[in-house]
Amino acid sequence: MTIDFDAILKSVREMIAGAGERDTKLQAVCELLTERVPHYDWVGFYLVDPAHPRELVLGPFVGEPTEHSRIAFGQGICGQAAEIEQTFVIQDVTRETNYLSCSPEVKSEIVVPLFNSAGQIVGELDIDSHCIAPFTMADRTFLEAVCQETTELF
Predict the structure, then answer these.
(1) Cα–Cα–Cα angle for 149, 150, 152, nearest 5°?
(2) Is the domain covering 5-153 a CATH 3.30.720.120 domain?
């Protein structure tokens, strides 16, 4: 199955540009990504807590509930991505010593930082897959573009 990332990105742009609150738009993005990309089994945004700027708080998401509603910078894959402000692609979570397990079904994860227009980290997009090694360079490029589109929301 070929995934039309360009068409999905176009839809994301339309959602972001449309009317509505930030979290409503982010929720719509989560729903779109899980509907259109078969190997995206859990899609969510973790946002930097303004009261605790070195901590991420679970925002809009689609998938199984997680006990990890708050993650400190540096903790787990999400916290590491926030700490160094870089995308993390983990093709097999069992090989990671700093992985925070959300579900035994999760086999791989990609985390992409979100920045505001001033270049400050404001959150991240976290995607879990129940498949080992499903993420390609096309996924990474696409998800980084999705995150770039969210800049204006922050």
Answers:
(1) 95
(2) no
